[in-house]
Backbone:
């Protein structure tokens, strides 16, 4: 409405045409005065098209109306009160008000501006509904956010000779309660203050320079910092993004999380060190036990080979028991060494043909298979990435168990075990391809989220042996745990623990299903994924 009072035309049509150019609603009111000169009322003498739209009326019906006719009581009362002040003093007045039009228009917010115009006032209406809604949305986000949020505006020095103005500080335009709580500064002290006044430590730490970089380039940044200045001491995760000629800072205090991470990492490091020490101890102890054990076996052989009559029958029996115990000790030490090497001596994975591995194991077990008259049904096995010796141990141990725990007429069964009429071992080896979603794990274990959509090979070995009660699943894969006495079945109780360790080393999964007297099925799940393409992989023909 600048220069409105200086317009020379008195033609309402020309004046209306001129006012229609404005994007704001403009209404001209004339004072109706009493005989004594007091303002009795205001009467509309002219309104532009935008004013008619905002009030929800047409240009004809709007003529000669008073503020009470055009606006709801709250707005009309405000206009009436402020109009007197404007007419009497000649000073303009501005206010923002909620507005519900008399006509069919929508509710909204308006910036109301009143200026003197002749013996009356000129009212300018600017629809600020969108801005108000955005402001309310921002306020709602700020209030509801658990993260600290601060909007800064850049403070610049006067341009130097090169015409470039430098940012020397940042002033807080807006902040939420979370920011006040995290920083320990009352909100009324925070808003309007500058960054370097409240927190000068941002300059020596280099944080201020990074903020200026965002202001000048528009590049958003995420910063994790340990801040120990200005009465603050903690870890903060900060995100800064450009906002006008300034920036929006969103931050959260991650001190507790960081401390927990550090504590957890220390625990992990301590456990890894402890495991390494235990593995080293197991390996060294087992290795050092080999020498005296060899001497015991050697001296036992020498004693057992003495001429007839030198040793009594009782002495020979003692020597045989000693030799038997030494053999068991030798097997136990060998299995312990094997188990310890699974963690301490890991080799880079290579392509392993499981079909060839299976044939090697069956060849090693050929005499046992013939002696037990066992039947072995095979399927085609895939090529996977892994450690050849470790995977060979898996098949060796699982097939050995299947041949060992067979139903025989003299097998000592637990109460309730089902008597099975056939005693010849029958072993079936199957393989299928599936995804992680279809994997069945051991009780208490789950497939990781990252593996749910990955492909796996499920390789199962099923036998018709004595089986076991699935309530013992948590025991059979634990080292040194046995379900049967040594008198019934020979073994160290390490074989299935080795199987589980190898499967874990190959990022796979393991499961077993069984019922007493009805055999058992052991299933290993190995990833079906090629390695990352490398020079070595190309050389291997991958």
Residues:
């Amino acid at each position: 409405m600048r220069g409105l009072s200086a317009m020379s035309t008195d033609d309402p049509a020309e004046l209306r045409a001129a006012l229609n150019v404005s994007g704001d609603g403009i209404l001209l009111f004339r004072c109706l005065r009493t005989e004594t000169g007091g303002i009795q009322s205001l009467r509309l003498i002219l309104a532009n098209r935008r004013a008619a739209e905002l009030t929800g009326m047409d240009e004809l019906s709007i003529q000669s109306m008073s503020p009470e006719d055009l606006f709801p009581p709250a707005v009309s009362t405000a206009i009436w009160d402020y109009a007197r002040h404007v007419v009497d003093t000649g000073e303009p007045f501005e206010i923002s008000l909620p507005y519900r039009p008399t006509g069919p228009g929508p509710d909204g917010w308006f910036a109301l501006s009143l200026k003197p115009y002749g013996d009356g006032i000129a009212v300018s209406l600017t629809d600020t509904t969108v801005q108000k809604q955005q402001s309310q949305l921002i306020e709602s986000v700020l209030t509801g956010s658990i993260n600290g949020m601060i909007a800064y505006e850049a403070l610049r020095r006067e341009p130097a000779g090169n015409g470039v103005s430098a940012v020397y500080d940042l002033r807080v335009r807006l902040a939420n309660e979370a920011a006040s709580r995290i920083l320990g500064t009352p909100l009324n002290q925070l808003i309007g203050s500058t960054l370097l006044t409240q927190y000068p430590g941002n300059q020596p730490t280099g944080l201020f320079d990074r903020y200026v970089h965002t202001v000048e380039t528009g590049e958003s940044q995420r910063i994790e910092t340990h801040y120990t200045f200005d009465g603050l001491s903690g870890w903060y995760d900060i995100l800064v993004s450009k906002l006008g000629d300034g920036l929006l800072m969103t931050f959260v205090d991650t001190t507790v999380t960081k401390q927990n991470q550090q504590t957890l990492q220390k625990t992990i490091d301590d456990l890894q060190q402890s495991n390494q020490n235990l593995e080293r101890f197991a390996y060294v102890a087992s290795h050092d036990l080999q020498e005296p054990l060899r001497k015991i076996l050697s001296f036992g052989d020498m004693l057992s080979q003495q001429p007839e009559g030198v040793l009594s029958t009782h002495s020979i029996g003692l020597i045989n028991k000693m030799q038997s115990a030494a053999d068991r000790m030798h097997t136990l030490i060998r299995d312990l060494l094997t188990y310890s090497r699974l963690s301490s001596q890991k080799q880079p994975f290579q392509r392993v043909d499981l079909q060839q591995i299976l044939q090697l194991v069956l060849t090693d077990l050929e005499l046992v298979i013939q002696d037990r008259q066992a039947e072995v049904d095979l399927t085609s096995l895939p090529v996977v990435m892994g450690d050849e010796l470790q995977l060979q141990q898996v098949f060796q141990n699982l097939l050995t168990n299947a041949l060992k725990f067979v139903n025989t007429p003299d097998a000592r069964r637990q109460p309730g075990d089902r008597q099975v009429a056939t005693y010849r071992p029958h072993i079936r080896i199957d393989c299928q391809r599936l995804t992680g979603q279809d994997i069945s794990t051991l009780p208490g274990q789950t497939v990781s989220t990252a593996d749910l959509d990955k492909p796996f090979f499920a390789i199962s070995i099923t036998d018709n042996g004595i089986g076991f009660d699935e309530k013992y699943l948590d025991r059979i894969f634990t080292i040194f745990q046995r379900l049967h006495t040594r008198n019934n079945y020979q073994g160290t109780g390490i074989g299935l623990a080795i199987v589980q360790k190898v499967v874990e080393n190959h990022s796979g999964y393991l499961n077993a299903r069984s019922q007493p007297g009805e055999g058992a099925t052991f299933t290993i799940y190995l990833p079906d994924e090629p390695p990352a393409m490398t020079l070595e992989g190309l050389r291997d023909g991958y």
Remarks:
- Confidence is low (pLDDT under 50) at residues 1-9, 410-416, 480-489, 531-542.
- Residues 307 and 316 are 12 Å apart (CA to CA).
